[in-house]
Amino acid sequence: MSNTRPIIQAEQLTKVFGNFTAVNRISFEVSPGEIFGFLGANGAGKTTAMRMLTGLLSPSAGKATVAGFDIYKQTEKIKRHIGYMSQKFSLYDDLSIRENFRFYGGIYGLSTSMIRKQTDDMLEKMGLTSEKNTLLKALPLGWKQKLAFAIAMIHRPEIIFLDEPTGGVDPVTRRQFWDLITETAYQGTTIFVTTHYMDEAEYCHRISMMVDGKIKALDSPKSLKKQFDAGSMDEVFLKLARG
After folding, report:
1. Which residue range or ranges hold the ABC transporter domain (predicted)?
2. What is the pLDDT of residues 132-189, one digit of tens each?
3. C-alpha torsion sign, points 90, 94, 98, 104
């Protein structure tokens, strides 16, 4: 991480649905190349916050910039500079691995030659070159997860947004996926990840802990454990939740 200008900035960001405040005046910054974790129980407001930052949902109040672009006025420019992996991976089961890469590469506006190069490079890196013509529905969940991550990176974005990326996979696959995240961040890509698995906080440079739509704590895992006199992030979260 460097001391350059933050790649994500949010100030008093708020989202209200009717009488329910899903995200309540949150403020934070993310540095380039940082793994920034948004942790909290289901319903804490993590996904809503991410959807505002990715231009998929309009805020009710507050302001934010992503990759230097305003989330109100420049959502299309934001989308060109980010990758996004949803909870359900959003891949097409009836297409082959190669066809999924081709489809999403086209959406991102890449040339045919660039799609082919990126596909070959990523499949070789993951050891899946021999499976490129396999239909996605024939693959194990862990492979689908890694492919969804690779496809989110096909256009070489500055930031990758991962929404609960390890939900439903086994502990070994979760660990392998976090190794992939760590390697990607080391190469300079910023990672913004939501999760309700408290042990995954240990992989993040800094984490924001959300409770009922508010950021209740924000720091490195080591600092938070020290601050709350806790032996694990689960213990930190329990102390936060109790108020």
Report:
1. 8-237
2. 999 999 998 888 888 999 999 999 999 999 998 888 888 888 898 999 999 999 999 9
3. negative
> Rounded distance, CA 127 to CA 104, Å?
20
- Give the integer Cα–Cα distance in Å for 227 and 46: 23
Residues 105 and 118 sit within 8 Å (Cβ to Cβ):
yes
In angstroms, the Cα distances linking 84 to 80, 128, 149 are 11, 22, 8
Query: Token pair for residue 117?
Result: 């190069």
In a domain, residue 115? The reply is yes
Name, in order, each residue with C-beta under 8 angstroms of 5's C-beta and a sequence gap of 6 or more: 68
pTM (two decimals): 0.92
Pairing relationship of beta strands 190-195 and 35-39 according to DSSP bridges: parallel
The parent domain of residue 134 ranges over 32-55+76-241
